[in-house]
Every structure is written in structure tokens, then in C-alpha cells.
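The data are quoted verbatim for completeness:
=====
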Amino acid sequence: MSPASSHDAVFVARRRFFDEGRSVSGIVAAPILRSWERCAEQGLDVSRSPSLELPTAHELRELQERHARLGRLARPELDALQGDARLTGSVVILTDTAGVVLDMVGDAAFAGRAAEVALRPGVSWNEAATGTNAIGTALVERQPIAVHGAEHFFERHGILACAAAPLIDPRGNVAGALDMTGPAAIRHVHALGLMRLAAEQIEHRFFSEGFEHCTMLRFHADRALVGTPREGVLAFAEGVLVGANRRGLDLMKLDWSAINRAKLAALLPGIRPFDQIQPLRGREGARLYGRLLDAPHRAARGRPIAPRPPTTPALSGEIEPILGEEMQASLSRAVRLVNAGIPLLLLGETGSGKDVFARRVHAESDRRNKPFVPVNCAALPESLIESELFGYEAGAFTGARRQGAPGLLRQADGGVLFLDEIGDMPLALQSRLLRVLQDKQVSPLGGGKPVPVDFALICATHQSLSTLLAAGAFRQDLYFRIAQYVVERPPVRHHPDRLALVRRLWRQLGGETAGVELSAEVERLLAAYEWPGNFRQLVGTLRALLVLGEPGQPVDVSALPAEIRAAAPSCDVMFSAPAPVSLAEHTRTALQAALDASDGNVSRAARRLGIDRSTYYRRLLKEKDRGR
């Protein structure tokens, strides 16, 4: 990875290198200099704009279909990082091995600015075409790299700050890149670490397909990390190494030349397959822990042996919802309603955990073994949302797949369809969705025969649907169809014990296992902050602190984002008396806060807390009696 060069040093280096032809070794990071030299040797003109071809809609669709597997394996990371990107005014990009942009998520406003320099799906950002940039240079260097502002080769790319990590497949080939790009005016200090960790997650997922016939060694120097995406993985076919991830090679003191050459018997003499984690002795006597899963043994069970539940959840995966007693009761009710086929509507601010709550409902429902199909109505382009939702027949429109496509509604058959940001669905599609819910069948575009569907429906929005109804932007009949039961997810700022929340999330992210501690002052500031981005922002910040932290050293206040440090003075009053607070006091505070936020309306206060009106009254009276 390359350290970022200072702003002034980069401009000095540009003048010396491009105008005077002098050496700038030691002024800019070595990977940046190597890239400038490669670009100059290829005859690229620093003062001109690169010549880039924009794809047609048909070409883009074909490109994405060719790389459907990569897109599928990277999707959890794109979804998880989307919130971080929006909060920092950035976009997260997935590319193929040639640097062609396959997918882009994040801040829509910045995506529009990026499109002005052709940073958009279907355009190649390999180094030979677009000069020094994080995507192209990371692919050439085969290492994570950040390129900030004027470090880009072409002058017009100086508006960008990029950080990218290459994706290396189990055979050592570059499969693509993951990139976070934002405005150069903001230095995104966490971006490179996030991309490195997310790339590691995707590379770990590569082993989920195509290695069913292999004997798998899953191991790590830390016993607690076996079974997590941080583990080393080596795959053997007939005793010969045929696949690995980078961590596995590092732990075993190997490099990519060992593929198709190294033998299990030589690496671990006398080893036999075993399911449970055991101590291992690696090369050069390294102390390791792991398990060896034999292919025939897995096949006898009809599927691969699942790794034990990770001690530390994936950094980019779901964080278990923080459910208090009342929200746990609300979850139980929601599961019963889904089992009965009654639609749910989840309300809550952006980042408050609506998606995770919906996934928990699915996981605990009778439909748990059928698909959970999430659809972000705000993220799908209006021109594509109809075909994506309802599917289409072959030849339904220019650029359609020759065999047609079933659509997301049919993919959810038997399971749960989760329509996130339903308030952003165009009116024309609302009427089509209403027909599907009424008739229980989908008619694909192009005049295809209606197909019966059976799915449970969960919708979510951060918007006020009553306001949209009054403005005529949302159909009243659809509202009453989807809002037969409403669950409100409270924002983080209403959590009765934010300090306990921060500590619990830190444990779930693996901070304790990694030996990284938050200092008391950092905990204090995190607990006092209002978190306008709710759980998504809080988890993203904790994830970044884990990347920046060092084992055995408390994370210092200087590592916190500027907006949290800036809010520190307002925290002093809130935390001037660190006396312990009882559970009863927390309960009273939560009940009163919900009532205040609901303008004294008890029914609304009860809904905010996910409890019945009678339960709210009973608890309120109980706490008042205690307070006397």
C-alpha cells in the first residue's frame, strides 16, 4: 500500500516530472511514480483528456451478465459499503479484471460528478486508458493503493480521491477490483483500509463455488479467527495445492508459484482430515490452528461442512440487530404475521436497521428455507425498475436477454420479498405492484402469460408516507395493502444506553478478539454523538476504527472522524457525571422520550417503542410508582 503524498509535494513532483523531466524519487509514493513512468512510456499526454468509449445499454447488460458470478459474490460488500459511501459523499465501484466498471453504489450526487470524467458503469479505468488511478494502478501493482487528487496522471482526474484493492482469485489471477472514490477536497482516511478488508471478504467467498471436490485446509495463527473471512484457506485436489487465498499463502510461507506444485503431505506431514479445530505446526515451526475438511467426508453429508459460527462476524456483513425487550417482542409479532401472510411496513430513519430487522424476520419465519429477495426501490434506475421487478419475455425491448428474465418478484416465490425505500417507487409501478398483490400473479413485460407467485411482503421507508399520500405521490390503496402492520425502528439517538450499545457493537465487530481497545475518551464521544446516520454510520465508524487500531494500544481520539471530534464540546454536559444509571431509570427515560417525540400521543409513543398501547400505559404507570 502506498502512503499518501502531501498536497504541496505532489505539485512539486508534477512540475519536475512532467515539465522538467527530472527525477521525483522520494517525493511521491513509489507506486505512484512507477505508474507515472508507465503512462509516460505509453505516450499518454498529461494535459489532454483520455479518449474513452461509452457503452450502449445492450453492451452494458451483456458485460454485467458475463461477470454475473463476480457481481453476485461481491454484492454483500457493495450493499454493506453503500451506507459508508453515502455518508462520506463517495461511491463504491466494482470492476472486472480489465478495470471496466461493472457496478457503482453510493452517493448519487457525487456519482453525477464522477460521470463527468467518465467514471461510470461500462467504462474502462485500466491504467493504459485512463492513466494513474486507484483502480488501474491497483490492478497493475496487485496491491491496495490510494490515489489522491493531483497524483492522478491526467489533470482532469484531480477532482477525485480514490482507494482500490485488487481481487485475487484462488489461483492467483486478478479477478477485478473494489474501489471507493470521493471528492479530492476531502481526504478519506479510512477508505483504503475498508477496501482492503472488503476485498478479503470477497476473496474468501470465492471458495464457496468450484471447490466442492477439494480437501480444504482452513486455518489461522489465532484460533478465534478460524471460520471467519480472515482465515487462511488452502484447497487441495488429490493432495496437490490448486487454490489459496493470500492469507493462507502468507501463513504457510508460500507464494503463488506454489499453486499446482505444493503438496499437502510435504506442508503438513502425516496430517489427516479432522472437523474440529486443532493445533498445527506450519512451515518453519509456526504455531497455527485449523481444521482439514476432506471432500468425500463433506459429500457424504450432501453438502460442504459449514464452518463453525465465526467468533468475530464479517466486518462488512450484517451486525446482529440490537434488540431490546420491546423490539424483541415486536420481532416475534412480525414473524407470526409473516407466517400468516400479512404484509409488514417498517418505518425508521436511514440506517436504523430496517433491512437487518427484515432479514431477522425472514430467518425466524416458516419461509426461512426459501429466498429472501431485497429490492432497493431508490437504487434501481427508473428505466430498469419495471423489467427488474416484473421480468420480461425474450425480445421485449432492445437489449433484452435472448431468453428473457424472470424478475425479482418471481425470484421471491415461496420466500420473502423486501421492498426497501418503497416511498421512492414511481406511481406507474405502484399500480402494477398493487395488481400483483391482489391477483397473486406476475405478468412479465412483452405480453407473457401471467405466472402465479407466493411471497410474504415486507416494505420499508424512511419517508413519511402520510406526506406522500397527501401530495398524491403514493397510492392510498397500495398503502393500505402494504401497511397492515407497522413497525417503527427507533434511531440510535433514542437508545437508552448508547455506551453499552457502542461496546456491544465493538465486540460483535471483533475488536476484543483482535486485541484492539477503544480508549475511555473515544467511548465517551461515540456514546454522546447523535449519529444522524444511525446504526449504519455507527457501525461504519467502528469498522474504520478497528482498521486504524493497533493490538494492545487503545484507539485514540485523533482517529475519530472530524465531525465526531467537532461535537465533543457539546458532550461535556451530557457526560459530566459518570454515575451509573439503573435499568429502571433507562426505562423511564425511554418511555418519556418516546412520549415527547410523539407530542404526547400515547398510541404513537407505543408504536415508536414497538409495544402495545396497553403495555406502554402499564409500564409508564409502573415506573411512575417506582419514582415516587
In short: Residues 68-87 form the longest helix (20 residues). The two ends are 62 Å apart (CA to CA). The chain has a mean pLDDT of 80. The longest strand covers residues 174-183.
